[in-house]
Specification:
The protein has 9 helices and 8 strands. The protein has 277 residues and is an alpha/beta fold. The two termini are 21 Å apart. It binds zinc ion. The site of zinc ion has 8 residues, from loops.
Length: 277
C-alpha cells in the first residue's frame, strides 16, 4: 500500500481504529483484561477530535477500560494512528533504510518521536514468535482442504470420514486472547498429539485453556486449568468461549477457499496480527 492509499483509506483516527478492531476482534470486541464479551464502546460523540480517546471500551464484568491498541505496537502513544500507518508504509516501501530525520520531515513529527515510532515498528517487524502463549488460551482443531466442511462440526466428526483416508488435513491451533495465534498441521487428532502441541506452545503454569467438549482435550486438563464450553448447550459462558480461534479458522478457510476477507491486506494486517490476531 502506498502513501496515497493509506491517506484515502484511513483518513481519520476513527477509520484507523475501526480497521484495527476488525483485525483484532472481527468487530466483536471482548475485554482485554478478563475476556468478557460484555463490553461497550464509550460515548462515541465525545470522542471527536480527541485522538487518545477514540475507541475506548468499558467492560461490564471487570469494569476495566481498554482500547484495541492495548498491548500492541501502537499502545500508549498520542501519535495519531494515521501517522503510524504512514510510517509503516514509508518504512516498508523504502528502497534503502529510511532515517528518523527523513521520517520526521515526511510525517511532520519531531525527530525524537519519529525515532521512537521507527524503533517500535522495526522491532515489531523483527520479532519472531518465540514466546509461549500465556493467559486465557483457546484451542480448537479443524480440517482444511478438499470440500468445505459442513457447518455443524460435531455432526460429521467420524474418524472414518475424516482425517486419514480423506483429502482433508487436520490442523490444531491455539490462540492467546488479545495475543498471538499458533496453528500447525497435525498428523492426527489424538489426545497425545494434542497434548504435545499444547505443551509446546502454551505456558501451562500460568494459563487457562478453553476448548469445546471434544474428549481429546481431557488429557490436557490434567496438566493445566481447563474450561470446557459445551456447544450443544451454549456458545458463550462468561469468558468461556472459543470464538477467537473459530474466527481464525474462518479467516484461514476463506483464504484457502478463495474468499479472502475484505480488509486483510498487506503489512498492516501482518504487523497487527503478530499481537492482534
Ligand atoms: Zn473485563
Amino acid at each position: 500500500m502506498d502513501l496515497l492509499q493509506v491517506m484515502q483509506r484511513f483518513p481519520t483516527q476513527e477509520a484507523c481504529v475501526r480497521h484495527l478492531e476488525y483485525i483484532r476482534w472481527r468487530n466483536k470486541a471482548y475485554c482485554l483484561h478478563c475476556g468478557s464479551i460484555s463490553v461497550a464502546r464509550k460515548n462515541e460523540n465525545q470522542d471527536k477530535g480527541e485522538v487518545g480517546r477514540t475507541g475506548r471500551y468499558n467492560c461490564h464484568d471487570c469494569h476495566a477500560s481498554f482500547k484495541v491498541t492495548c498491548g500492541t505496537v501502537f499502545h500508549g502513544t498520542k501519535i495519531p494512528l494515521q501517522k503510524w500507518f504512514l510510517a509503516i508504509a514509508l518504512i516498508v516501501n523504502a528502497k534503502k533504510s529510511i532515517s528518523s530525520h527523513q521520517l520526521s520531515r515526511d510525517l511532520d513529527l519531531n525527530q525524537k518521536t519519529a525515532w521512537y515510532i521507527m524503533t517500535r515498528i522495526r522491532s515489531e517487524m523483527a520479532k519472531k514468535g518465540g514466546a509461549l502463549l500465556q493467559g486465557i488460551i483457546e484451542a480448537d482443531e479443524t480440517y482444511i482442504g478438499g470440500k468445505p466442511r459442513k457447518p455443524n462440526k460435531r455432526e460429521d466428526f467420524e474418524p472414518s470420514k475424516r482425517g486419514r483416508g480423506t483429502d482433508k488435513t487436520a490442523v490444531i491451533g491455539a490462540v492467546e486472547r488479545g495475543g498471538k495465534v499458533v496453528a500447525q498441521v497435525a498428523e492426527n487428532l489424538t489426545g497425545r498429539s494434542i497434548l504435545k502441541f499444547i505443551r509446546s506452545v502454551v505456558n501451562l503454569k500460568d494459563s487457562k485453556l478453553i476448548t469445546d467438549e471434544f474428549h481429546v482435550y481431557n488429557a490436557v486438563g490434567r496438566e493445566m486449568k481447563h474450561a470446557v464450553i459445551n456447544h450443544a448447550d451454549q456458545f458463550v459462558n462468561g469468558d468461556t468461549h472459543t470464538n477467537t480461534i473459530e474466527g481464525f479458522w474462518s479467516l484461514l478457510k476463506r483464504a484457502w477457499y478463495g474468499q479472502a476477507p475484505p480488509l486483510s491486506d498487506g503489512i498492516y494486517s501482518s504487523i497487527c496480527s503478530r499481537r492482534l490476531l
